[in-house]
């Protein structure tokens, strides 16, 4: 589990599917096992609170983005307690929304990392991708249809260089600058040999 404080009232949690399994849940359980999921979120909130020094109170908006083959990214936003509940200490209300993405999109802070990862992706047979630039980040959308063993290789390689992204290809096409529309890995490897 990775934690990142975004602002005074917001933090992010990233869990891989292996992290979920270690906690006794599967991806399918997120949609069906409500008591188990509630306990998972409860435990994660307090673990994040301890590690980030984030005081949990009031209403928490929990947005869960399930990322294909990568895990899930959870964005937690805290809203101040309302006057109705001030007398109740330790009151936490969680509003949870789940969203699942079928796209494989990763974000990079430096184009040099895209060059490095492209050489490694080419070695494992993944060449079809698109590359975008938006909001000071580079994004790589993997367009190759992957077999399960390729997916595992992809996740291993990408975790060294990039972060999974919840930005959609629709948003990247609309607001991002297209650097490579398709076949990005092959092109990058030939330009930056």
Query: Uncertain spans, ≥5 residues at pLDDT below 50?
Result: 85-89
Biggest sheet statistics: 5 strands, mixed
- Radius of gyration (CA) equals 19 Å
The share of residues in extended strands comes to 25-35%
Question: Which quaternary structure do these chains form?
Answer: single chain
Tally of contiguous helical segments: 7
Order of helices and strands, N to C?
EEHHHEEEEHEEHEHEH
Question: Largest beta sheet: what is the strand line-up?
Answer: 1-2-4-3-5
- Mean pLDDT value: 82
Work out the number of β strands: 10
Global outline: globular
Amino- and carboxy-terminal Cα gap: 35 Å
Domain unit count = 2
Percent of residues in helices = 25-40%
What is the SS-derived class? alpha+beta
Q: Care to describe what's here?
A:
The chain is α+β, with helices and mostly antiparallel strands and 193 residues long. The protein folds into 2 domains: 2-101, no CATH class; 104-191, Alpha-Beta Plaits (2-Layer Sandwich). It contains 7 helices and 10 strands. The protein has helices at residues 17-22, 29-32, 34-52, 111-123, 148-161, 169-175, 184-191; strands at residues 2-7, 10-15, 58-67, 71-79, 92-101, 104-108, 129-134, 137-142, 163-164, 177-180. A 5-stranded mixed β-sheet has the order 1-2-4-3-5. Strands 9-6-8-7-10 form a 5-stranded antiparallel β-sheet, with helices on both faces. A hairpin with a 2-residue loop joins strand 7 (129-134) and strand 8. InterPro entries: MecA_C_sf, Neg-reg_MecA.
């Amino acid at each position: 589990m990775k934690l990142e404080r975004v602002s005074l009232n917001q933090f992010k949690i990233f869990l891989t599917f292996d992290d979920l399994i270690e906690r006794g849940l599967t991806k399918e359980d997120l949609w069906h096992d409500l008591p188990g999921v509630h306990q998972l979120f409860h435990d994660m909130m307090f673990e994040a609170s301890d590690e980030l020094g984030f005081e949990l109170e009031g209403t928490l908006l929990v947005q869960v983005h399930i990322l294909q083959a990568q895990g899930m990214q959870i964005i937690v936003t805290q809203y101040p307690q309302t006057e109705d509940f001030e007398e109740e200490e330790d009151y936490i209300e969680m509003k949870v929304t789940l969203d699942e993405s079928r796209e494989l999109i990763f974000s990079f802070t430096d184009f040099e990392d895209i060059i490095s990862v492209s050489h490694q992706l080419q070695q494992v047979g993944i060449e079809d991708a698109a590359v975008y630039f938006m909001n000071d980040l580079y994004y790589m959308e993997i367009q190759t249809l992957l077999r399960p063993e390729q997916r595992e290789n992809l996740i291993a390689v990408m975790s060294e260089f990039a972060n999974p992204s919840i930005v959609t290809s629709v948003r990247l096409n609309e607001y991002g600058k297209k650097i490579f529309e398709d076949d990005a890995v092959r092109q990058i490897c030939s330009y930056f040999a």
